[in-house]
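User: Could you go from structure to sequence for me? I need the amino acid at each position, not a summary. C-alpha cells:
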C-alpha cells in the first residue's frame, strides 16, 4: 500500500517541481532582460500646424519654420516634419525660403534635413533675379546660414538653367558652389 501511494504521489511531485522550475526560470529571464522602453522609436508628442520662430539678439526675426505636422521622438530627440517651409530673413529684407515634402530636425536642433521635392528660393535683390533650386535632399544649418547637398540639383533664374551634382550655399553671402558635373544653358534676354 505504501508503494501504491508513492507511485501515485510521484507524478504529482514531478508536476509541482516542473511548475516551480518554470516560474523560477521566467523570473530570472525577466530580471536579466527588462524591456528597454527608451529604445523604442515612438512619438512622445505630435503638433499639427506647427510654427517656430527664432530672433537675433536685436529682436529681429532670423528664421521661421512651419509644417503641417511635427512629430517628436524621445529616444533620439529628433522631430519629423510634414510639408515643412523654412524661411531665413537676411539683412535688408532679403529672404531665402526652402520647402519639401518632409524633413527631420536633429536632436540638437542645429540641422534640418529636407527631403523629397525640395525647392529653395532666393528672393530677387538688386541686379540678381529670383533663383530657384530644385533637388531631392538638402541639409540646412539655419544658424550658420548654410545649405548643402550631394544630390543632383537644378538651378534656374531669369537668364539660365544649371544642372549639377552637389552644392554648398552660404545664403548670408549669397555664394553658391557647385560640386561637380556642371552644365549651364543660357537663355537669350527677352526682346523689347
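Assistant: Here is the amino acid at each position, in order:
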Amino acid at each position: 500500500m505504501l508503494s501504491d501511494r508513492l507511485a501515485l504521489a510521484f507524478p504529482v511531485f514531478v508536476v509541482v517541481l516542473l511548475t516551480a522550475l518554470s516560474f523560477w526560470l521566467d523570473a530570472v529571464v525577466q530580471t536579466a532582460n527588462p524591456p528597454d522602453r527608451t529604445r523604442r522609436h515612438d512619438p512622445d508628442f505630435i503638433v499639427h500646424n506647427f510654427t517656430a520662430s527664432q530672433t537675433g539678439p536685436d529682436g529681429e526675426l532670423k528664421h521661421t519654420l512651419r509644417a503641417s505636422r511635427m512629430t517628436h521622438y524621445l529616444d533620439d530627440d529628433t522631430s519629423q516634419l510634414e510639408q515643412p517651409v523654412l524661411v531665413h530673413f537676411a539683412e535688408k529684407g532679403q529672404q531665402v525660403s526652402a520647402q519639401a515634402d518632409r524633413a527631420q530636425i536633429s536632436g540638437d536642433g542645429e540641422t534640418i534635413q529636407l527631403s523629397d521635392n525640395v525647392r529653395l528660393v532666393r528672393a530677387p535683390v538688386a541686379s540678381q533675379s529670383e533663383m530657384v533650386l530644385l533637388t531631392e535632399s538638402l541639409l540646412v544649418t539655419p544658424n550658420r546660414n548654410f545649405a548643402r547637398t550631394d544630390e543632383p540639383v537644378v538651378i534656374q533664374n531669369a537668364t539660365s538653367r544649371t544642372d549639377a551634382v552637389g552644392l554648398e550655399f552660404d545664403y548670408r553671402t549669397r555664394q553658391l558652389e557647385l560640386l561637380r558635373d556642371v552644365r549651364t544653358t543660357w537663355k537669350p534676354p527677352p526682346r523689347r
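One structural detail worth keeping in mind: Residues 38-186 form a domain with the lipopolysaccharide transport protein A fold fold (CATH 2.60.450.10).
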